[in-house]
Write a structure and sequence with these properties.
disordered N terminus; DNA polymerase, domain 1; 240 residues; alpha/beta; 2 domains
Length: 240
């Protein structure tokens, strides 16, 4: 049986919050598409190619942060240095060539997005992925036609868990943080949203449990679980 754990004690998921909700900022990796392991494997390969033997588990725990922060934390390399750019370029080619063709969306990902749109919510992608990877991942989950706007790591100076990408997404959607919520799978999503002044609805499908996702408005097993419990979720429209 799929279980949902609700964490509504923060007070953000109030009736007033639901009534003023205009936009949902979407993460993709680990949220809509089962891709976190693939990203970690691509980083592992690229780093090893350049002589950095970093355990998969360490890299896996950093997925969800921007590549600049991952390189700095995993091996102390500046992503803007020639060496950092070489590693990232190989990682990107490896991910797109070897892993992307095998990726699949989480069940009911598109259906959930359609349900959110039916409620009149703007859907704005706010991801740490690069723009080319983001576009390909949206194709994987058949979401390109339901997204109103998108931002990627190319649109922000600082990557998650800094709030820059979310702030850029809000500007594109022309909504405020108080009118928005994040849908994500990592503690970095929760932190970035908090620093931006909004709440997060979290899913465990990215590999993090309830303790790591503490502070979210609600936590679900995956997007299918969220859709199944949609009427009780922080996204649902409720009569005044």
């Amino acid at each position: 049986m799929v279980m949902v754990a609700l964490h509504l004690g923060s007070g953000l998921a109030t009736a007033e919050h639901v009534a003023t909700l205009l936009a949902v900022l979407l993460d993709i990796d680990g949220t809509l598409v089962d891709s976190n392991d693939a990203h970690a494997r691509a980083w592992e390969y690229a780093l090893l190619h350049f002589g950095h033997d970093i355990a998969f588990e360490k890299l896996r725990g950093l997925i969800g942060k921007g590549g600049d922060k991952l390189l700095a934390e995993a091996v102390g390399i500046d992503a803007e240095s020639p060496h950092g750019k070489q590693i990232d370029q190989l990682r990107g080619r490896t991910f797109m060539r070897d892993y992307l063709p095998r990726l699949r969306p989480f069940p009911k990902a598109r259906e959930l997005l359609l349900r959110l749109r039916e409620d009149g919510l703007l859907l704005v992608v706010a991801t740490s992925a690069k723009r080319s990877e983001m576009a390909a991942l949206l194709e994987v989950c058949e979401a390109s036609d339901v997204i109103h706007a998108h931002t990627s790591s190319d649109d922000a100076e600082n990557s998650k868990p800094d709030p820059d990408i979310l702030q850029a997404a809000l500007q594109k959607a022309k909504v405020s943080a108080s009118e928005s919520s994040m849908l994500g799978d990592t503690p970095y999503d929760v932190e970035a949203a908090r620093r931006c002044g909004m709440g997060t609805v979290a899913v465990r499908s990215g590999g993090w449990g309830d303790v790591a996702l503490e502070g979210a408005l609600a936590i679900y097993a995956d997007v299918g679980d969220l859709l199944a419990h949609y009427e009780q979720s922080p996204f649902a429209r409720r009569p005044g």
